[in-house]
Amino acid sequence: MKVKTNISPKFQETYAIICSDALNEEVEEAVAMLSHQSQPIVVLDRERQVILKPADIYMVKVEGRDVFIYTKQHRYLSRKRLYSMKEQVPDLLQISKSTLVNKAYLDCFEPGFSGSLLIKLENGLSDYVSRHYLPAFKKYLGL
């Protein structure tokens, strides 16, 4: 994607124009990222509610019927669904049916079983990229 900026005092308000031949995933991601208002995320830590910034999230994972949000050192319970987290935090990349990871905290990856990849995050968490989500993951990495 090409990016062009035009900075001038004649502009009263900041706006973006996206030109494309079709509405595709790249355009939808750009629109979501540009229109995203960084909202805090309320999670549960035992008996208290904690407010997280989207940038604090390393991984979001469904375990059983619960959705857990992992930060650098903690695990919190969320009342939100996985798809809702993906919409609210555009930096999250889906790697399996039950897991989202923050693109900013990817550390390394290695081959896994049956054509999957094992990714590791900067805080030591790891999970597999399923074959279904592998093409999008490789596209993100430019592979």
> How many runs of DSSP E, i.e. beta strands?
10
Adjacency order of strands in the biggest sheet: 5-4-3-7-6
The residue fraction in helices comes out at 10-25%
Provide the β-strand percentage band: 25-35%
Gross morphology: globular
> How far do the termini sit from each other?
16 Å
What's the alpha carbon Rg, rounded to whole Å?
A: 17 Å
Describe the overall structure:
This protein is of the alpha+beta class. The protein contains 3 helices and 10 strands. The strands form 3 sheets. It has a 5-stranded antiparallel sheet with strand order 5-4-3-7-6, with helices on one face. Strands 8-9-10 form a 3-stranded antiparallel sheet, with no helix packed on it. β3 and β4 (66-70) form a beta hairpin. The mean pLDDT is 87.
